[in-house]
Structure formats: C-alpha cells, structure tokens
Amino acid sequence: MTDPGLFSAPQTPPPGCPAHADAVRLGGLEYQQTPSQMYRALRRDHGAVAPVLLDGDIPAWLVLGYHEVAQVTSHDELFARDSRRWNQWDNIPPDWPLMPFVGYQPSVLFTEGEEHRRRAGVITEALSGVDQFELARDCELIADELIARFAGSGQAELMTSYAHALPMRAVVQMCGMPISGADTQQLVDDLRISLDAAEGDDPVAAYGRVGERLVRLVQDKRADPGKDVTSRMVLHPAGLSDEEIVQDLISVIAAAQQPTANWICNALRLLLTDERFELSVSGGRVSVGEALNEVLWLDTPTQNFIGRWAVRDTQLGGRQIRAGDCLVLGLAAANTDPGLWPEGHVGAENAAHLSFSNGEHRCPYPAPLLADVMARTAVETLLERLPDLVLAVDPRTLTWRSSIWMRGLTTLPVRFTPVDG
Q1: What's the CA gap between 268 and 379, in Å, rounded?
Q2: CATH superfamily placement of domain 24-415
Q3: What's this model's pTM, rounded to 2 decimal places?
Q4: What pLDDT digit, counting tens, does each position of 102-160 carry?
Q5: What CA–CA distances, in Å, run from 361 to 196, 244, 380?
C-alpha cells in the first residue's frame, strides 16, 4: 500500500490534480520509520492542509491540523463519507491498492445521514451487549494460553505470538466465530492483507475472501442465533439485510483487530524502552494505563484515515477544496499539532486525542471501551506473568511496518526468565 520511493515532489502534477506541483508522495522508508518528521515538514511547507499524492500519484489533501480534522469530521454536510463523489475515479484502476479503503460498499462506513444513524445504531447496540467484565476475563484466559506457549523458552516475538493473536481471538469470539482453526486464521490473514498489504499481497482478492467468510457466519447465525455480536445484529429490529450485516461486520472486526494489536505492541514498546516506566512496569496498572493513553497521542495505531469527500467547493485551513476532492484524515499529525501543544509537550494525561476519530462517523460507542479492555488486559497480564520481561534487542533496531495508514512494529523480540507450564 505504500510508494516504494522516498517522499518527494513529482516533476509535474497528474491531470486534474487538485493540489500543486509540490504535492508530496505519501510513502517511502523515511516516512515509515519517522512519520512525525514528515508531518513537521508538511506543516512548515503547506500549513494545516497539505497536497499529497497517494499510490499511483493520485492527488488528495492530507489534513494535518487538530482543529481542521475536528472541523472535517464535525461537518458531514461539507465533508461526507460516500466515496462515489470522488472526482478522480476516471484515474483509478480497478486493482488500485487502496480500493478496499475507498471502493464504495453498502457499509456503515460509506452511509450518511439517517441511514448512517440507523446502521451505526445497530452496531452500537450489538457492541453494548458485550459484558466488559466477561470480555476482560476471556482476554485474560486467551492471554494465559498464548503466554503458556512461549513462557518456557525464555524468549518470544510478541507481535506474532501475542499482540496480534489476542485481539484476533477475542473479537472473533465476540462475533460468534470459532476462536481457533484454519478458517478463522485465514480470515485474520485476509483482514491484515486488506488493511496493510505487504509486497506481493493482493488486497482486493483478500477483501473478497473476507466477505465470503462472513456471509457464511451471518447465515449460520440466522439459523441458530447465540449471545454474540453477529446474532444481535441479525435479530435487531432495524432489520438489516445479510449484505448490510456482512459489510458492517467487516468494519467491526477490522477496527477491533489490527488497531488494537498495534495499540498493545506500541504500548509494550513504550513500557520496555522508556525509563519513566522502569520502576513501576512490573504489574504497574497505573503506568500501563498511562502508556496506553500516551500511545494514542504519540504513536496512534491508525495514523491516517481515508477519507472524506468534499460535497461542494469550500475552504479548509486556507486551502480551496473542490467538490469531489478526497481528504485524508491525518489523525497522528493532528494529535501532535504544535498549535494544540505550543510548548512541544503532548499532554498524554488527557483523552482528547482523535485516535478514534470524531463526530458522527467516529468509532461507535462502546468500541473504544472494548478495545481498551482488550489492550489493557493483554499488557497487564503479560507483565504480571513475566515480571522481568525485557527487550531482546537494541531499541534503535526496532522497525515499523511499511504502512502510511497503520502504526505498528514489524517485530517485538523479548526475553525473560523461563516459566514452567
């Protein structure tokens, strides 16, 4: 999903470019490892709204300012979610890598107005039926099982064996799927490819397989409903069709799995590398909470979100936005906006970040609370079971995944005193 070259200005803008000749390509190794530097450069050169180029040099606007992101997400009448408004569709090939993000689907993500409120209401009520204490208990049981697999070895790679595996198992259990097996693992792999494709992956094909698997799940729950999120969506009086439920389940599962996994891992990295947490990390519930919140400010799992589309010609951050222009929400950039933190110190003690977005299309309640339960339980349980856990490599050698959308490590190797059974 990323441009292999360093971020740089093209020689000439593509036809119909809403931006400028100095538009910046989003991608490249330098961006992947230190995106904050790119955000600073974009602010310096362009202000709160910067002209950028997506894969294939498709033009868009990256909204960097905290107040500008809040403005976009609070005014659906100006910046709407239906991607069919995009004025660049004539330039988009059918196999475009970002198609899973922007290709219109009958999903809650692309609905607007009363239809969005109807669909989001079903999701909200289905998620509200999840008992947070039971979820915490289930996550602790999952954590214990995962830890037991590597506890005796004294070493582990936590991204694969723990951080990604725990929320995956928790969310599929919430949705009424088997918590293990090849079928479930294939679904998780396809979700990863859809959201964060590596070289050689086919995100469009993977997205299609995700839909096929969830069609079978919805059909199973119509025939035999249970006490799970999918069954509550099926039985909801709003009467969503199978297709609507499938599309909305994709949104729920994708939002719950990979971002939560990266939230867990980014928090563990902070706890294991920042000297502020050294004395209280072992079983330190207060510091775990502080680390989780600080990550949402400084290393939020969802760095950028595509997108919103201008309903009509308007202005934003001093820029002239044309009807149909695409706006990418720079959530990570907004959270570290120097206008918000003029002295350069991000106040991680508060929760006014935009990591769960804002406005009517933000993550529906109580999704952020459920994600917090999963992340907090995962981190606390790991530190309690393996109290002398330390990073197994020089922190400077850790690398980030090659994605402009998600912020997560490629690996997190650790060592500890082996624990029997």
Answers
A1: 7
A2: Cytochrome P450 (1.10.630.10)
A3: 0.88
A4: 999 889 999 999 999 999 999 999 999 999 999 999 999 999 999 999 999 999 999 98
A5: 22, 17, 31
